[in-house]
Structure formats: structure tokens, C-alpha cells
Amino acid sequence: MNQDDDLRADESRAAVQQARERLGRSRLSVPRARVPERAPPPSIAGRNEAPAANLGRAEYLTVKGELHERLLNELNQRQLLGSREEALAEAVREFVANVLDTEDHPLNEAERKQLADDLLEETVGVGPLAVLMGDPAVTDILVNGPGQVYIERFGRLEATDIRFRDAEHLLRIIQRIATRVGRRVDESSPMVDARLPDGSRVNATIPPIALDGPTLSIRRFGRQRLRRTDLLRLGMLSADMATFLELAVQSRKNIVISGGTGAGKTTFLGAVAETIPAGERIITIEDAAELILDQRHVVRMETRPVNIEGRGQITTRDLVINCLRMRPDRIIVGEVRGPEALDMLQAMNTGHDGSLTTVHANSPRDALARLETMVLMAGIDLPARAIREQIASAIYLIVHVRRFEDGVRRVEAVVEMLGLEGLTPLTQEIFKFERRGKKGRSVVGEFVATGIVPRLVEELRDRDVAAPMQLFQKPR
Fold first, then answer.
1. Which residues contact 294 (CB under 8 A, 6 or more apart)?
2. Interatomic CA distance for residues 466 and 476, integer angstroms
3. Which of 218, 230, 363, 426 has the most CB atoms less than 10 A away?
4. Residue 319: what pLDDT?
5. Which pLDDT score is estimated for 224?
6. Smallest Cα–Cα separation from 359: which of 305, 323, 306, 395?
7. Residue 469 has what DSSP assignment?
């Protein structure tokens, strides 16, 4: 979701350089050539590892591989594999110091430090992925088996030369990640979806459901939160759009943000939520806690999956129902994707105005259809008209965001709900992104008002609040 080249390029370069120095890698190249579908042979599988100064690449990898196997056996015998990272790190340092003092390995001081760092990263970290995790410009890390690693950087997918030694090496990394967050992944539970301590979202699959070997997907979030001013500078929306949305939020209008995967819904939701008055009580509900709000009176809640015994699951719907008893002024649901849509709509219609949420959809009209489908998932036999009336009366605005082919996220449309005509929801566009073509790889266009004055303006006038009419003037 981080598309800000200017904001983060310097930080990206500095972080990558630090990771290179710490891990002893001579370079991080990201070739655009097609990566082979099959895992490369062992001699190529470790080519992202820089050779030590006195040892060749193959010799260094051989030494490191042998020591890592011995280290794992020793940690297992001492029953330290499930210990805290501090205890593991101390055990790794002791092991390396003992080996280098008692055994004949032709390593200089720099090589010894590199070996210790590499073994520590292999044992308590993410192994070969460490250099990618250290680059704040990388927003997605996609591992399609031991020999194929892709990243998304600045909105574009790129192949990397990062490799795992074999499928067993990748499986160990996945199991370590799962253990760190209190989850289990094995043949009886071959999928895991979790959140790392830094907020990154992780999804992993292993055989038998992953036919070509273990896979790992890491969705990372920037260390710096993108604020509304950042989104304006990046061209995600116009100043007129931002002003109108601020008026809608402060007028306690319910807003749904729709868009596809990776379109920037959560980032945009956080920017919109900036304008919620500081004195209001906000409750956020998310599958994986991602939102960071400026307000002080915020209660954050997160769903919980089933435990090893298959019990203890807490769903988004459970949290929505519970939060109604917590005296919220605003309810923010990170994403509605199931039967909780019914409870969210009922909350919006029963005094909890000003609520915000996101939904996966390809257009504002699709967002309404998806909400209707998700209400039906609640298992309550409601007629279509009753569901659509709930939706039409609960939602005031649908803001549709989209990631265009140039990698830039933009608000494609701001749509106002008007009610129903028969069984058809009535909507009208207030703002839209008008595409004019392409210039090189960049999409050329501008945000324009459609000339329609929203109902909010009349409501504000009734409250003696002036709304600048020039916001809604259609360009000539």
C-alpha cells in the first residue's frame, strides 16, 4: 500500500545498505528476467548469499549449512527451539564462539561476524528474506517455493535472486514464523494466516494443499503511516475530494470504501478517519490490526482464529455485536467480508452514525451487491427489498479506490446513495477520476466534480454551516 517513491526512497536505500552490511551481502539485484518455475540446483539455490572473503561461495555455504544443522540439533537437545528470541540469540552466539574457538575454520574477523549474523538470522529470523524485510519500499514478498521469490516495490511486481536451499529450508522458516505468533502449521493444519509483531500480514501454505512445495506471502506495511497530506501529494485524491470527505465525516455520515486487493483501502480509511473529532470514542475491529489512528480515545479489537483444539474462534461478527455494548461514538470495521455486514448495517441504522468500513469490490455498484450477498450469509431469511432498504438508509457515501496499471492508487469515484426506486438502489457520482490517456508508463487524468451538489450541502445549511459550493462545480 506504500506507493510513495519520494517519501520513502532514501529510507529504502539506507535500510537496504544496512541489511547488506549486517548480513554480509555484496549486492541485492532484482533482475527482470523470467525466473525458472522449478527450484534451481543447490549450487544456484544459495546465490543470494555473498561469499566470504577467504572462502569461495560454495565452501562458505557448505560450512554454514553444516553448522546450522548442528546448531538446530543442539538447540533441540537443550529444548530451546520454542524459547524467546533473546534466549535463542544468546545460545546461537555461544555456539558460534565455541565452534570458532575449538575448530579449524579459515575465517577472518569479518567472516566470523558474518557467519554469526547469518546463523542468527536463520535461527530466529526469516533467513534469506531478511534483506527484503529490511527494505521499507517492499510492500509484498511472495515466495512460490524455494527457487522463486517475487516482491512488489513501488506498485510493480519484480523477480528477485533470493533463493532457499530447498523446500525443507523454506518449511523451517514458515514453521518458525508460525511459532512466533502462537500458530501451528503441519500436515493436519497446512495453512496459516497471521500478523507479525511489526504489523505485517503473513499467509503460508504447505503440502499437501500446496502441490509444488511451501508458499509464503508477506504483506508489509510502512513504518511511516501515510496521512491525508501524503495521499494528496501522491495524487490519490484531490483537495476538493478531501474537503468534502472531511465534511461528511464530521457530519457523522456512514462511509464505505470499496476497491480491489491492494488498492489502498486500509490506507485511505486511516486517512479519512483522521478527521474524526478527538473527543469521540472510536472502536476499531479488524482481522489483522493495521489501522493507526491519531485520536487518543481508541479501543482496538482483533479477531482470533481457532486454536489447536479447534476452539476459541472470535469472528468479526462477534466483535461487532460486542462493541455495541461498549458505548462507541464511531465504529470502524477494517473490512466486512461475511455475515457481520448485517450487524454493521443495523448499527449504522440504530444511532451509530459516522461509522466507516471497507469492502472488496470492483465498482461502487458491485459494493452494494456484495453487501447484499454478505447479509444473506448471516442465515436470516430476509426479502431482497428489506436488505436493500437497510443498505440504502445506512450508507451515505461509497468511495471507490483503484490501483491503476502505473502502480498509483487513486480514488476512482465518490458516490452518494439516494435511496431505492423499486428494488434498484439509486446513486449519483459527486467526484470521479477522468482518465485522459497514458504518458509512457504513467496514467494521465484528473479528478473532477460532476456538477451534482450532494444532499449534505442542504443539511449543513440547515445547521448554519457553510459548504463551499465551488467544490462541486463541473470544469468547463
1. 274, 278
2. 24
3. 218
4. 94
5. 64
6. 395
7. G
At residue 14, the pLDDT reads 56
Report the alpha-carbon angle 90-93-96, nearest 5. Answer: 150
Q: What is the largest CA-CA distance in the chain?
A: 85
Q: Do residues 101 and 152 touch, judged by C-beta distance below 8 A?
A: no
Please name the residue that has the C-alpha cell 566470523: 112
State which H helix or E strand residue 420 sits in: strand 409-421
Is there a contact between 429 and 398 (Cβ–Cβ < 8 Å)? no
Q: What is the pLDDT of residues 304-319, one digit of tens each?
A: 887 767 788 899 999 9
Cell of 383: 426479502
Q: Which residues pair with 284 in a beta bridge?
A: 300, 332
Reported as half-sphere exposure (CB side, CA atoms, 13 A), residue 115 has a value of: 32
Query: Quick one: which of 288, 271, 287, 182 has its CA closest to 233?
Result: 271
Q: Which of 450, 454, 447, 451 is nearest to 418 (CA)?
A: 454
**Residue that the C-alpha cell 536451499 belongs to:** 165
List the beta bridge partners of residue 300. 284
Enumerate helices (H) and strands (E) in the chain, giving the number of each: 15, 15
**Does the CA dihedral 274-276-282-286 come out positive or negative?**
negative
pTM: predicted TM-score of the whole model, two decimal places:
0.72
> Could you read off the pLDDT of 255-268 as tens digits, one per residue?
999 999 888 899 99
User: DSSP H helical segments within 125-192, as ranges?
Assistant: 130-133, 167-180
Domains of the chain (ranges; CATH) run 5-219 (3.30.450.380), 228-472 (3.40.50.300)
Q: What is the CA radius of gyration of the chain?
A: 26
**Interatomic CA distance for residues 345 and 352, integer angstroms:** 10
Within 10 angstroms of residue 140's Cβ, the number of other Cβ atoms is: 18
Burial environment of residue 68 by CB neighbours within 10 A (0 to 12, 13 to 18, 19 or more): buried
| 414 and 429 Cβ atoms separated by less than 8 Å | yes
Closest CA to 233 of 408, 415, 449, 405: 408
Q: Which residues is 342 bridged to in the sheet?
A: none
**380 confidence band (pLDDT: 50, 70, 90):** confident
pLDDT of residue 28: 33
Q: What angle do CA 256, 260, 261 make, to 5 degrees?
A: 115
